[in-house]
Hints:
Helices cover 72% and strands 0% of the residues. By secondary structure, the chain is an all-alpha fold. It starts with a helix and ends with a helix. The relative contact order is 0.23. Residues 46-55 have low confidence and may be disordered.
Amino acid sequence: MANKIIGYVFLFLGVIIILWGLWFSYGIFTGNKPSPQLFAVDTSKEVSKKDVSLFQNSDLNEQAQNQINALLQNQLGNLISGDSMNKILNLTAWSIFMAILVLACGKISSIGVQLIKADPKKNA
């Protein structure tokens, strides 16, 4: 009889934690709740403002390379902002955490079902 009580506790505990996690995730992905902030990428756009005029140095190849690097850094900074990168990283980490939580609680519920189905006459 004690095995069945423990089995029901495990079963309901696993299901309740899974449902809580799904409800919390639904709130995060719909924007009703803020996501946990695990990562913080620097959002300031610090592009090096070098003077790359053609009269500064005599080496034109180096100046062209500096201009191309500055242009690429500026365009990449505009394409993927730090805030969107923070959101992507935080939501990915939350999804991985929830997957682990659901798998672990599924195993707890499975153990609960096994305890409920256990025949005490076989164990005696």
